[in-house]
Amino acid sequence: MTLPVFDPLPDESRFWVFAFPKQLSASDRQAIEQQLDAFLPMWVSHKVPVRGAYTILEDRFVLMAGHCPDGLSGCSMDSCVSNFKLLKMAHGLDGLNYGLVYYRNGNGEIESADRPTFQQKLGRGEVSPESAVFDTTLQTLSQLRAGGLELRLEKSWHARAFRVPVS
């Protein structure tokens, strides 16, 4: 997947996917944009500016990347994540719930489910090996560029984590 906002950043850039259980509204997007637009120019790693960028994808995901020549420090990564803690506290926007699985339903809409519910949906045939799932565990921009964000379930780590019926 190529997204122009990330073009200036190298493949080894640190990458995050912040996924939201419900579709973001216009006011949700505005709150996120205000928070991140204020943060990016001040983002540093050991007093060295971090080149960073973000985009909101399909009103469900905030994709964010950062690069520093000597790598990102733990504190600089924590400062990035802290923005989403603030968004949760101030606006109820939870992009930090790592226990959810994101997938496309039969109509192509993005849904989320906790792991037990996702397994039940697999068992009932509401989700199949061909269904698209989202990998919110990507860590580098190269993984995004290689098409790792949205994959068929059978081609993703989800196929190993869940009992997937054979079609």
Descriptive keywords:
3-stranded antiparallel beta sheet, 4-stranded antiparallel beta sheet, 167 residues, alpha+beta, 5 helices
Structure, briefly:
With 167 residues, the chain is α+β, with helices and mostly antiparallel strands. The protein is built from five helices and nine strands; from the N terminus they run E-H-E-E-E-E-H-E-E-H-E-H-E-H. It folds into two domains: 88 residues; 46 residues, no CATH class.
What does this structure look like?
By secondary structure, the chain is α+β, with helices and mostly antiparallel strands. The chain has two domains: 4-91; 100-134 and 151-161, no CATH class. 31% of the residues lie in helices and 24% in strands. It is built from five helices and nine strands. The strands form three sheets. Strands 7-6-8-9 form a four-stranded antiparallel beta sheet. Strands 1-5-4 form a three-stranded antiparallel beta sheet, with no helix packed on it. α1 runs antiparallel to α2. It starts with 13 loop residues before the first strand and ends in a 6-residue tail after the last helix. The model has no long low-confidence stretch (mean pLDDT 95).
